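*** Protein under study ***
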Amino acid sequence: MTDDFTRITERIWDAAGGSAGLGNLTVSGPRQLLPSAFDVTGLAVASVAAATLAAAEFHAARNRMPPSQVTVDSRAASAAFACEALFTPVGWTLPDIWDPIAGNYPAQDGWIRLHTNYAYHRAAAEKVLGAADRESVRAAVRDWKADELEAAVVAAGGCAAAMHSRKDWLASPQGSAAAGAPLLEVTAAAEGSTASGSTPTRSTAPGEAAAPYAGIRVLDLTRVIAGPVGTRFLAGYGADVLRVDPPGFAEVPACLPETTAGKHTTFLGLTTPAGRSAFERLVATADVLVTGLRADALRELGYDEPALRTLNPSLIRVSHNAYGWSGPWRDRRGFDSLVQMSCGIAEAGARAAGSDKPVPLPVQALDHATGYLLAAAVGRALTRRLTTARPSSVRASLIGTASFLWSLPCPHGQPSSPGPADFPLEDASTAWGPARRVPPPGQIAGAPARWTVDAGPLGRHAPAWGQG
């Protein structure tokens, strides 16, 4: 079973640009924990392992020592993929993670999912349907064909996805364009391209017991789960992570106690002179910029790849989106649950379960896996920049992660659904009150992960590095 986990990890490690073997990796625990028609447990273990290996590799490179032993337990990795569901407030209440009208609805000819967790996405769905509560939405959806309603909601600025089979998805222009996308697209600049005056990796003395990413500055322009999971991982191993959002932005409240752990958060308006100036100062002194925006969103604000390289030639640029970087849907808004509907995962789950309704994955696995993939790519890119002075650009997508999951052999047999008591939790403090949460899922010998900044609301810090 360990060899099986290792084979999947090797594929991710190769995609992240890894070259050395995985001799310092030990995996333990049951082979299947998360019941699904897909190998979600394997994806969880392998993505966590790749991220943790990359942190250990960078730690070794900057300290000029052999990589430390990395251990990953399948229970811990599976729990990490369910962390937002397992998070338990102590003496306070966490809001529901889903908006009241978000969910799957039967249309005239199939199923469609509406994603309404942001107010402006809900407003778009309400405008198209002429309905504002769950029962009236359900009645209105029945009058539409699924693909036509999807197109109408998207055109109105909302988010929706009709359920399709894998065959139909791959036959569509958007599915065909995304089918060949790599799990991670890594592009390294020419050797020696780090310019004087830029921000090369700050090294540490041999044998220094600093956290693997101590001194690394990460500018975080990500939302919801995927990107925030990746940057939270980096923060857990010592990175100075600053999350930037537009003034007054309202993130899904139920996510924040998990996804802001270890981070400072600030508001900046990139359409104002003052906001742009502050943002450019941060970019110029960052090591890594991680974005989870639509493909052309940053370019439309004037910050395309050449502009960012001008501000900081040594910047490691990491980005992810929903539906990939080519084809007609490259700029489409999307989320894990929508991608599952589009690409055939929910339909395949329904067939496997003998259900007449969509059956998604048991956790938001595309989000979480993509987050750990981004973290793995950042670690590899930092090592590459340290050893060759070559900064990198990295791209990932939820649809790319979905295609990777499709490529894994289907699991044999189904475990029973785990409950909260099956996963160990640890005490945590947040700005809202005490809680119990899933601990970091991987371990590096001699370098434990910990979040030194309590989770809290957005926009609570200054737009600056090194705030303690």
User: Anything to note?
Assistant: The radius of gyration is 21 Å. DSSP finds 18 helices and 16 strands in the chain.
